[in-house]
Specification:
The N and C termini lie far apart (about 95 Å). It contains one helix and four strands, in the order H-E-E-E-E. The protein has a four-stranded antiparallel sheet with strand order 1-2-3-4, covered by helices on one side. The protein is rod-shaped, with a radius of gyration of 27 Å. With about 120 residues, the protein is α+β, with helices and mostly antiparallel strands.
Length: about 120
């Protein structure tokens, strides 16, 4: 007797291997999509932080010590930029921390030093 074709077990094993590889591919694609969304969010947060720091640099008076909060809507995100200005040992400089937050979740933090012009 000459049997041609596959047994049911062979077909089920092939389907199991195919489904596992497809699930792995879907998981990798989902991870890449999540990473791309995170990079987009960080890029927009960087724009918000840069804008806030440029405002401080362009201000005619030296940055006052303290904390201030600015709203910064970008695309579909509603960021909040918290600027914390602190003194340094040199009175001609101020340390500035800019933290960008999206719905109570920190997205980005930048620290820099501003000098008196």
């Amino acid at each position: 007797m000459n049997n041609k074709g596959f047994t049911l077990i062979e077909v089920l094993v092939a389907l199991a291997i195919l489904s596992i590889s497809l699930m792995a591919g879907l998981r990798a694609a989902s991870s890449m999509t999540g990473n791309a969304e995170r990079q987009w969010q960080v890029l927009l947060a960087q724009v918000c932080a840069d804008n806030a720091l440029h405002q401080l640099r362009l201000s005619p008076q030296f940055a006052n010590v303290g904390e201030q909060s600015l709203d910064c809507p970008q695309a579909h995100f509603n960021f909040k930029v918290v600027l914390t200005v602190a003194t340094t040992p040199n009175p001609s400089f101020r340390r500035v921390d800019a933290q960008v937050i999206d719905a109570q979740t920190p997205v980005l933090r930048i620290t820099t030093v501003l000098g008196r012009y």
